[in-house]
Request: fold
Amino acid sequence: MTSHLIRLHPSGRSFLARDDENILAAAARHSVWLPASCKSGRCGSCSAKLISGEISDPAYDGRANSVRLCVTTARSDVVVDVEELDERPVKPNKRFPATVVNVEAVPDGQSNLRLRLPRAALGNLSDGQSMKITAPVSLAELPLIVSGREGNIVTVEASGDHPGASVDAMSSIASVVGAVIQIEILACLSEIQ
Ligand code: FES
Reply:
């Protein structure tokens, strides 16, 4: 595997990018934060000006010198003109309604909660991701971890940091099976650069 040196202008920051990763991902791997949004070559928010070097970007035509760092791989040492962000970008948490399907006892004395989520919420979830219930207030702030998913039914368990509090909360939730509650999905690392 080959790596190339990427240097940012005007900051002068540099980092190595492997030939199997895009420059945006390589920057994040080195805790260098750059503007980005879709990370799939569609929005243009990661555009940078190529000052020197060889790259592969399917849309690069060599005239505007504009490359999309989320889909660009370095083929030599490269210098690009792009403004660094001061800090790691964090996406806002997202709130959705969820229907309580059931609460299942599991062998370790804890309980699993199954929720039916709207389609819009499913694209924001992955195993191990954190969420919390925000309403009704009686259940609010219960921290949950996604542990499984089948179709639009998501299984969550109480975060291991709060096992005691979760027992009471889960039995409260069991009394509202069929009801719609509000959840907040916390931005996960994979959504952040
Ligand atoms: S982040 Fe959208 S094109 Fe790169």
Notes: The two ends are 23 Å apart (CA to CA). The domain at 94-191 is CATH 2.40.30.20 (Elongation Factor Tu (Ef-tu); domain 3).
